[in-house]
Amino acid sequence: MKAKIGIAVVVLIFLGAMYNFIVNPEGVDQTYLLPSGFEGCVVINYSVDGAKPLKIENNEIVYKVPKSGILNTSSPFDFGWVNEKHSGAYQLRAFYVNEKGEIIEELPQEKIRFGATGASQEEGKPEKHYFYQIFGAEEIENKGCPALGL
Length: 150
What we know:
By secondary structure, the protein is α/β, with parallel strands linked by helices. Helices cover about 20% and strands about 35% of the residues.
């Protein structure tokens, strides 16, 4: 009898853990590798034909940002998202890298500013999805994202 109760308790714990994972799944970490001294708006354009896809490795998406701040990817805009309404990003970090791609310095959290998803569409053309993230001081954030006209 005690063995059956023990098995039932183990099964309930397992089912509870699975339910928690389904209801509150953990998102992927997002890491930005920025050119040394970069401040401003990073724009990620999704579903760009011929561009490299993003990858999730060790539960992390690493964005290697060019000096222009504009990163094109063939991945869909919801790549790495937990569900349709939320990316579920677990940890957002940014680092400055040198020309060889080696990490020089981590940006403090207060320099990781506003970020948002968006879309635009020209008449007769498919909708374009993007995400932008601003890095730098408050004055930089106040300038918005000129690459997007924001």
